[in-house]
Design goal:
This protein is mostly beta strands and about 100 residues long. The chain has one domain (about 15-95). It is built from one helix and seven strands; from the N terminus they run H-E-E-E-E-E-E-E. The N and C termini lie far apart (about 50 Å).
């Protein structure tokens, strides 16, 4: 029985991992360019030691591809279950109106 399991596992592909990314879109206040960005929920989050509740924090600086090199700073806070709790932006605005 073990031989057949090994044989079938050699010809089947491994299951795909879940997409653990948070995608968002921002618009530059200077030129109006829309930029799609993502946060890797496994690697980009930092534990927020000030909160003492197991929440996470992420800060990103985004620069567009066009002629405008305005920096857009995004700060996001996630709860202990890695769900978005709060977000702030400087130098731009969020296109999708979630929390």
């Amino acid at each position: 029985m073990g031989f057949f399991k090994k044989l079938t596992s050699a010809f089947t592909s491994p299951p795909k991992p879940a997409d653990l990314s948070y995608w968002y879109t921002v618009r530059c206040k200077r030129c109006g360019e829309e930029i799609k960005a993502r946060i890797d929920m496994r690697n980009d989050l930092s534990l927020d030691y000030d909160a003492n509740d197991g929440s996470y924090y992420c800060r990103k600086v985004i620069i567009g591809d066009g002629y405008c090199f305005q920096q857009i700073e995004v700060q996001m806070r996630f709860n202990s279950k890695r769900q978005l709790a709060d977000r702030q932006i400087t130098g731009g605005e969020f296109v999708n109106q979630e929390p």
